[in-house]
Design goal:
Layout: E1 2-11, E2 14-24, E3 29-33, H1 40-48, E4 55-60, E5 63-64, H2 71-74, E6 77-80, H3 92-96, H4 109-122, H5 139-150, E7 157-161, H6 169-186, E8 189-193, H7 197-203, E9 206-211, E10 214-219, H8 221-226, H9 230-237
Parallel strand pairs: 3-8, 3-9, 6-7, 7-8
Antiparallel strand pairs: 1-2, 1-4, 4-5, 9-10
Helix pairs in contact: 4-5, 5-6, 6-7
Length: 248
């Protein structure tokens, strides 16, 4: 579904992606792990066209979209942003139906509202939440509203950027279960970036570790637990000692 070939990206003199190669199969739920500042978010931004790679190619369904995906291409994607990133000035239903209220996917407002309420219900939020503003919702409710927006257009590919950041363990478990259920139901291709190993185990069909600007390792959850790779072992067990440098 998505292929990155020798993708390089640097900011000033600092290389972030250094020849990254990665394939994501259709219907796969890939979780990318790695330390802070290793380029996980930059990788997502390059796929979405928010950042242009310095070199390399990004293909979706065999189509080269490197640096210029186009609006029609982006309608096939959904994204749950870290912190939900809801528009404070819009009621929840307009946040969820944002793509249906403007642009090439615009629908009548009544129809857009119906779709938004249906998606809110799918993530466990009652219809009366639709007319509230984001500030009136708890952190967990905001995250679920963000998830409803991500799936509003039934996208082929969904990105999840640190989906459980800032949530208590119970709500984090709820979000992980929802992501797993929804991705499975929709048959969507999912790419998640996270530091949360509980999320990794709940969401992933395959795990990839990004380190040093390249994908260092990929495998299933059982393979991750069995690997002798010292970088993966240090990261998944949260050890201070190991090849990954830590600030002291």
């Amino acid at each position: 579904m998505i292929r990155l070939e020798q993708v390089h990206k640097r900011f000033d003199r600092h290389p972030v992606l250094a020849g990254l190669d990665l394939e994501i199969a259709r219907g796969e739920s890939l979780v990318v792990i790695g330390g802070s500042g290793t380029g996980k978010s930059v990788m997502l931004k390059c796929i979405l066209g928010l950042e242009a790679p310095d070199s390399g190619r990004i293909l979706v369904n065999g189509q080269d979209v490197t640096g210029n995906p186009g609006e029609a291409f982006l309608t096939r994607f959904g994204m749950l942003f870290q912190g939900a990133a809801l528009f404070d000035s819009l009621p929840v239903w307009q946040n969820v139906a944002f793509r249906y209220l403007r642009g090439p996917m615009a629908k009548p407002r009544a129809e857009a509202r119906e779709i938004a309420i249906a998606k809110l219900r799918r993530v466990g939020l009652a219809a009366e939440v639709a007319d509230r503003f984001p500030a009136e919702l708890s952190g967990g409710m905001q995250k679920r509203a963000g998830l409803a927006r991500a799936i509003a257009t039934d996208p082929e590919v969904i990105f999840f950027d640190e989906p459980t950041t800032g949530l208590d363990p119970i709500m984090a478990g709820v979000i992980n279960d929802l992501i797993h259920e929804i991705v499975t139901e929709m048959g969507a291709t999912a790419i998640t970036i996270t530091h949360d190993m509980t999320s990794v185990r709940a969401i992933a069909t395959r795990v990839a570790m990004l380190h040093g600007g390249v994908i260092r390792w990929t495998g299933s959850i059982p393979e991750m637990d069995a690997t002798t790779d010292p970088y993966v072992n240090q990261f998944i067990h949260g050890r201070a000692e190991g090849p990954i440098e830590t600030l002291r």
